[in-house]
Amino acid sequence: MPTRGFAVTDCAHCPSPPSPAAGRWDVGTMSRRVAAVPAAWLALLATAALAAGCLVLATVDPATSGRYPACPFYTVTGRWCPGCGTARGLHQLLNGRVDAALGYNPLLLVALPFLAYTFLAWALPALRGPRLPAVPQPARAVWTVLALVGVFWVARNLPWEPFAALAP
Domain locations in the chain? Predict the structure, then answer.
């Protein structure tokens, strides 16, 4: 009887087949089943951690609580990085104040839909949900996004208007 993968029949330290009628134990099938379990648990754990993080961020204001770490780049250089203001912006966004979130970090509102889609495209299939269509990511697009983040990084540190408005 041909089987896929490596079949174990007479091994003293390996488990026996589920039943005599099942025949040979297919290691390939079992490894695929075992590998599917951690992905689902990881996706479930990541979703729960994301929900808990959003709950904490919605209730504890990063601008006033002093419970969140300072940006290491800002601490060392005194300049804003592209991520500065993201926690404060997410707090405002989770409390329904889109205009205040835009004031803290406009890049956040641009990047958030893409980050959410990427997370869902990973988590849904792992949780046996629908598979989202793949979004092509040509190298030119990746380099363009990196260049725009670099321009935003420089522009938010310029001291004159309208660039000073990009600082959190």
Answer: 26-142+156-166
Q: How far is the C-alpha of 9 from the C-alpha of 77, rounded, in Å?
A: 64
The Cα–Cα gap between 15 and 146 comes to 51
Q: Is residue 4 classed as helix, strand or coil in its secondary structure?
A: coil
**pLDDT digits (tens), the chain, 168 positions:** 444 444 444 545 555 555 544 545 555 555 555 555 588 888 889 999 999 999 999 999 998 878 888 899 999 999 999 999 999 999 999 999 999 999 999 999 999 999 999 999 999 998 888 999 988 889 999 999 999 999 999 999 999 888 888 888
pTM to 2 decimal places: 0.71
